[in-house]
Design brief:
By secondary structure, the protein is mostly helical. The chain has helices at 2-11, 36-48, 52-69, 72-82, 92-99, 109-167. It has one domain (34-167). It has six helices and no strands.
Length: 169
Amino acid sequence: MRVLLIFAFLLLPGCALIPRAAPPTTWSGPTLGVNPTEEALRYYTYVRKLSAADLAKEHEAVKDAFDRSRDDFTRIQYVMLLSLPKAPFHDAGRALKLLDGWAKEEDSGLRRFGFFLAAQLNEQKRLDDSGDTLRAKLKEEQRRADEAQSKLDALKSIERSMQRRRSVP
């Protein structure tokens, strides 16, 4: 028994040497028979690696496909594209509207994934709004600090001029 345990522990580091499949570098569309949620995640992995120009082309292609078919998978693709944080077409509000009600209609894996995305987008929106509020407060505090500094500078200037008058006979 000990020999088997020792042998198993000796083989364990060898598992790290087994090459893993690289993530896809091109999107060939959803694979038949594969879990649609997994396909959606594979698609997200794909679009995150696109250049800005290719991402814009992908956005237009998916938007056009969604306008034509409005199927569940294309909806999820479009929502994921709209939710990409630094994309020029980022629109969390539009993505949320596309998911509003849709994710609750039936109990499929893709709809549950849509419900998850909606929850994430709502949290992102809440954090963005909170960040906007904090930035506005920071700007106001900075304005008040600048105002206080200018008043302090004016008082120092008055004090210096008063000291100069006292020192002149």
